[in-house]
Amino acid sequence: MSKSAVQIDLVWVDDESQTMRIHAVLSGGKLASEEMYFHLYEETDEGRQLMPGLLHSEDESFLRYVAEWGYADKSNIAFELLDRPLEIGQEIKRIDTVESGRHEYTYRIVELTDLLA
User: Fold this and answer.
1) What is the pLDDT of residues 57-71, one digit of tens each?
2) b/e string for 67-103 if b means 16 or more Cβ within 10 A?
C-alpha cells in the first residue's frame, strides 16, 4: 500500500472558530503515524491561544492518540478516530479526563491536503 503525507484541518463542531491542524502519514487513506505533530487554536480565559503538541498512538491500530504538549508532558487528552479512511466531513472525538469527570468534544475534518503533491 502506498503512503502519503497529509495535512488534516479540523474544526470543533460547537464553535468552528476553534481549529486543529495535524500533520500525518496515511496508508490506504488511514492513519499510519506513531506520532503526529499538531496545533490547536482554542479560546481560553486569556483569549485565543495557539497550543502546539505531539500525538502519540496508544497501539498499532492508530485509532487512539494521547496528546503531549511539550517536554514529554503527556496529558489526560486523547483523540479517537474511526477505523476507516479519512475523508472530509468525518468526525474525530477528543476526550478530556479531568478530576471533575470526562468531557467529550467532536471535531470535523474540513480539509485534507496531500503534502507530497
Assistant:
1) 999 899 999 988 765
2) bbeeeeeeeebbbebeeeebeeebebebeeeeeeeee
Q: Is 108 exposed, middle or buried (0-12, 13-18, 19+ CB in 10 A)?
A: middle
Condensed to tens digits (0 to 9), the pLDDT of residues 86-105 reads: 999 999 999 988 777 889 99
**CA-CA-CA-CA torsion sign (98, 101, 79, 47):** negative
Predicted TM-score (pTM) of this structure: 0.87
Asked if 27 and 105 touch (Cβ cutoff 8 Å), the reply is no
d(CA 66, CA 94): 10
